[in-house]
Amino acid sequence: MTIAPKAPRKLSMKDRYSALTRDLDWEPSYVSPDELFPQTKFEGIIIHDWSKWEDPFRLTVDAYTKYQAEKDKRLYAVLDGFAQSQGHLSLTDASYLNAMKLFIQGIAPNEYNAHRNFAMLARHLNGGGPRFAALCQCLDEIRHAQTEIHTLANYNKYYGGFHSFLHQHERVWYLSVPKSFFEDALSAGPFEWLISIGFSFEYLLTNLLFVPFMSGASFNGDLPTMTFGFSAQSDESRHMTLGLEAIKFLLEQDERNVPIVQYWLDKWFWRGYRLLALVAQMLDYMLPRKVMSWKEAFELYFEEQMMNGLFQDLAYYGIRPPLHVDKAIQEKEYVSHQAYWILYQFGHAAAFTTSVPTDEHMKWLEEQYPNTFPTYKTLWEKEKKNIENGGRHFIRGLPQLCQVCQIPMGFTEADDPFVQAQRESIFEGERYNFCSDGCQYIFDHEPVKYRQAWLPVHQIYQGNCGGPTLPDVLEWYNLKPGDGGEYLGSMDHQNWLKWHGEADSAEGIDEGDAAYAGKGH
Amino acid sequence: MTLHDTISAPAIHALGDYNHPSRSAKEIYGDDMLLMVWWKGNPWFVAAACCRVPEAMPWETFWAEVFVPYHEEDPDFDASKGWEQFDWFLAVNRTEAPVEVAAGKSLADLGLTHKAVLGFKNK
């Protein structure tokens, strides 16, 4: 009688996961833990037991790569189909792509930055569990950078503003806002990174960033971006879970961590919220077919989900909602109007176009913001008259910038929509300007860090941006004709009309033709 | 003019020495300074202007060569009414300290220093 060999015992999912991740970890024997992990003490965070980290997801590398490869296959099939069928012609309007220009210039390079820092965490955190979680997110982030760039590359063949997104990310004034945000986090310690990006950005604010962009794509015929959004969605869910686990882990390890984490929350909520001013204006002004207003998005994704949900849970650990959140709630009524008004006035130095809202668009804005939009409508009415008289509101100089968020100081006092907030602090004999109490609070706690800010306006005046004149600076930005300025009459607009058989109506349009701009679109 | 600090140096948590200079210190600009010029209550200009100007620039030169070309972009601005049409002040947080602008005075004479906010509003 022969006896069949016993089949090898199959490990349970949980055991297999442990065997391939945490069980590969070891205790160092010929170096001390402090020598091996030199970055996890200086921030003041105290960790007693790294094994208490609850792995937020149980993926092994082989399962991870299999899932991601399947998602990539689906995405690249859509990209091919869209390109071959001239899918860009089925967008709602060429002006929709302004939102995507902002996305590729501002967000895609920061996906790569996120990849870099999670790679650092995958090396430098003491625990095997958090190191593996950081490794997975590090891989996600570089995949996102690559897929976003590939998704939007197709538009570069036909539209302005896409050709030099990385070059411009490093140089252009409005892109210093997302760039400095991420570089602030990159230059912090590993635990602050976990709270700044892992928790505040990926959990607290991520729905306000990704849902508007991806829903905007869906509503405006951008199938590739929508597919990218679906492809990234399961990753984002994991990132949210990791962010939540990170904050709970730090808070549970030692109560002396609570005030440190609270300060980081105060700081990174406000830094992230200020960055989202770009998303607010995108939702309310850049999408030809609207998804929802910024105010609605803020109420749903922040006030309802975070203020009424998350922060009630975190109160158990002694964490309160971030400082200055009351100001953010007030600003939901007007921040998008102010942010777009900034971009509109400096649109001649941008790699996207802007335009006066049409009458129909203004009606929608009035419906969404009955208490505040009438105030801003008076500005647009004045601008329409200005255009009729041959003008177009492009500022003839450079603006005051906030030392912390780096946005032109166009945000107003809560009690007066016509008075921009002015704040200043003096440190070691030098004055610094801020747009808000939130930004001043951050500077006052870390003046040595923020006095190094590379403020684009100051750098232009120091002669570090290509030369003293506007054309010098625009050349240094690598802006090409048709990239920025007024949308109506722009290269994108003229091509759009031509491709849709409406070229006759575009006859006589020159780039930046202000008279035409007054006719609406 | 020496400015008095409004904040003290907080503790720094870093791996090594961390004390880097400002990227926009007055010394970088030589005899010039950056001056913020803010039309309070007029949202046509979305933010205050940031200008690089010599500290010794006479007020009337500043008005004619810097102020007017910038603000003429507002169709409601009438340069011919002169600087007397505005109240001028130094903006510090939410406070306003009056500034008596006059021909013959330099910007430094008016008490304007690097990155100060020169505010003005319609009378």
Automatic annotation (TrEMBL), chain A:
E.C. number: 1.14.13.227
Alphabetical list of SUPFAM superfamilies matching this protein: Ferritin-like (SSF47240)
Q: Report whether Oxidoreductase shows up as a keyword of the record.
A: yes
TM helices/strands, residue ranges:
none
Note the InterPro entries from the entry.
Ferritin-like_SF, Phenol_Hydrox, RNR-like
Official protein name in the record: propane 2-monooxygenase
| Catalytic activity, as annotated | propane + NADH + O2 + H(+) = propan-2-ol + NAD(+) + H2O
One MF annotation (Gene Ontology) recorded for this entry: monooxygenase activity
Which species expresses this protein natively? Nostocoides australiense Ben110
Source domain of life is Bacteria
Enzyme class, first EC level, given as a word: oxidoreductase
Keywords, alphabetical: Monooxygenase, Oxidoreductase
TrEMBL record, chain B:
Pfam families with a match to the protein in the record: Phenol_monoox
* InterPro entries, per the entry: Phenol_hydroxylase, Phenol_hydroxylase_sf
Gene Ontology molecular function terms on file: phenol 2-monooxygenase activity
**Per its record, how is this protein called by name?**
Phenol hydroxylase conserved region
Its lineage opens with: Bacteria, Bacillati, Actinomycetota, Actinomycetes, Micrococcales
